[in-house]
Design goal:
alpha+beta; YefM-like fold; 2 domains; 4 helices; Antitoxin
């Protein structure tokens, strides 16, 4: 991951964007401190496994423990 100053990024934006499009990642710095990251655009949805697990636990706890799986199976067979 290459670091580029804000001035360099502004001056060479077209070149920088071509490299990003090719898959490179850049960190933009201002006075030596990182302020931004330029990464190739992706249509993929980022997934946080911890957040997914937390959601599943909430769903599971909201389902009554009195639910009988055999009743669900029999109910499904009726359809």
């Amino acid at each position: 991951m290459e670091q580029v100053s804000a001035f360099q990024a502004k001056t060479h934006l077209s070149e920088l964007l071509k490299k990003v499009q090719a898959g490179e990642v850049f960190v933009i710095t201002h006075r030596g401190k990182p302020i931004a990251k330029i990464v190739p655009f992706s249509e993929e949805i980022e997934f946080d496994p911890k957040e997914g697990l937390s959601t599943l636990k909430k769903i599971r706890s909201s389902i009554s423990s009195k639910v009988n799986i055999k009743e669900f199976i029999n109910e499904g067979r009726k359809w």
